[in-house]
Predict the 3D structure of the following.
Amino acid sequence: TNRLFTLQVTDIAYFLSENKTTLAVTKNNQMHIIDISLDKLNNQLNPDHFFRANRQYLIAREAVKDITLWFNNRLIVNLHTSTPEKIIISKNRVGELKEWLMRNG
């Protein structure tokens, strides 16, 4: 069935792009297909609250649980909400991620 509903930005843990489909995943792990690309979301959402982790993930600051060191100076962001795969931050984005986490934090 097709239903329309309101999704609050504050309920979102992360956005995931998968097979040309964008999913909004809430803090309680509900998945919703949304009709907007991660690039557009990244431009529309408050950059203090959301970070473009990589090509697949746009993550909410409130959802970040901790960060793990990974191979070749990369990082893995662990969220309070489960994700289908590891959210890997490339080494050239590590500084940007740290700066984002420190901002207004």
Remarks:
- The longest strand covers residues 12-18.
